[in-house]
Amino acid sequence: MTDKLKVAVLGASGYTGSELVRLLLRHPRVELTALTADSRAGKGMAEVFAQFSGINLPTLVKIDELDLGGIDAIFCALPHATTQIVLKDLLAKKPSLKIVDLSADFRLEDPAAYEKWYGHAHQALDLQQEAVFGLVELYRDKIKGARLVANPGCHTTTSILPIVPLLKAGTIDADEIAIVSATGMSGAGRAAKEAMLFSEVSEGINAYGVGNHRHTSEFDQEYSKAAGHKVEASFTPLLVPMNRGILGTIHVRGDARKLHDVLSKTYAGEHFITVLPFGQTPHTRHIRGSNHVQIGVAADRREGRAIVISALDNLVKGASGQAIQNLNVMMGWPETTGIDQIALFP
Ligand SMILES: NC(=O)C1=CN([C@@H]2O[C@H](COP(=O)(O)OP(=O)(O)OC[C@H]3O[C@@H](n4cnc5c(N)ncnc54)[C@H](OP(=O)(O)O)[C@@H]3O)[C@@H](O)[C@H]2O)C=CC1
Ligand SMILES: CC(=O)N[C@@H](CCC(=O)OP(=O)(O)O)C(=O)O
């Protein structure tokens, strides 16, 4: 037990926090030392999530009750804006902490872009500059030496992974990328919201954040870096009445066979990314509960255009699984440690 990394999960009473606890309980090199909550502080995990009944876990405490002396690393699963204030304070108290943050607070490199998309000035600019964008398959080397890693958003992980290699290879027209990304409802978190009630969401599907969803800023940043010039993709998220999963459908201009070839070669050695045979496209059922991403490429009937489809679980590769993959890289552990389970199917 003594050589295990002592880990705290901030926001363990939320969806991504509880998913971290579920996954970390199977991680052989981590000891879950502290769990925090806000309104649910003082409760046991089993009172908040019955799936943890009978499991021995620390009681949920407020963040200011944490004993940092006994903590080596932190997963932060708190709301945007709150996160930057909390992490600035914790790192000032204990600079040696390793942190993987699941919020959007440290994903954008440009403070002006943050201010534009999030409506206020960043409160921890030094940390924003220090943070590494936590998409392991693209930034593995930088993540290795990082103290603070910013896990990307779930919609963005889904559609950055297939498009960045194509932009780097110059095989698609950077001015013609249109993403429609369908998400399950757990992406909205556990806090009660009228728009997320069963009767508001079931038996229907709707677009939201049309033309101005804040994830657009992450696409702009990563697509522009890959292309070497400014890229602005079109992005429309859809809310569908399922619990987990994201399916990104991306329309591009390029030769479908070539795109498939580039993606197959790029991801040939990646454990968590599967490029399906040409013409075959993924289903969210086949990645549910796993850290895997499945990518398909099909030819559009219009010559010179292609359709790329990508699927992942928003709570795993889109959040908590990817966060653990990041910690594994930061610690120099095998990248799949604790997160190599196959999807839950049917
Ligand atoms: N859900 C998803 O699929 C994804 C979410 N994310 C991001 O991850 C983060 C967490 O999301 P999610 O788990 O869905 O959110 P939830 O709403 O389910 O959980 C939020 C957690 O934060 C705690 N909390 C809320 N306000 C405060 C505060 N002021 N101080 C301290 N703790 C607070 C809550 O405590 P309590 O319940 O006790 O009030 C709860 O534990 C967000 O930044 C989100 O954008 C990123 C990728 C995917
Ligand atoms: C259904 C739903 O509301 N989903 C969230 C995505 C959550 C996520 O990945 O992203 P952030 O960490 O950037 O919040 C949304 O569209 O804002």
Automatic annotation (TrEMBL):
Q: Which reaction does it catalyse?
A: N-acetyl-L-glutamate 5-semialdehyde + phosphate + NADP(+) = N-acetyl-L-glutamyl 5-phosphate + NADPH + H(+)
EC code(s) of this entry: 1.2.1.38
* Pathway entry: Amino-acid biosynthesis; L-arginine biosynthesis; N(2)-acetyl-L-ornithine from L-glutamate: step 3/4
Q: Which residues form the Semialdehyde dehydrogenase NAD-binding domain?
A: 6-146
State the top-level EC class: oxidoreductase
The record places the active site at: C154
Q: Name one Pfam family in it.
A: Semialdhyde_dh
Task: List the Gene3D superfamilies.
Answer: Dihydrodipicolinate Reductase, domain 2, NAD(P)-binding Rossmann-like Domain
Which SMART domains does the annotation name? Answer: Semialdhyde_dh
**CDD domains reported in the protein's UniProt record:** AGPR_1_C (cd23934), AGPR_1_N (cd17895)
General function of this protein: Catalyzes the NADPH-dependent reduction of N-acetyl-5-glutamyl phosphate to yield N-acetyl-L-glutamate 5-semialdehyde.
Family, as annotated: Belongs to the NAGSA dehydrogenase family. Type 1 subfamily.
Can you say what this protein is called? N-acetyl-gamma-glutamyl-phosphate reductase
Source species: Agaricicola taiwanensis
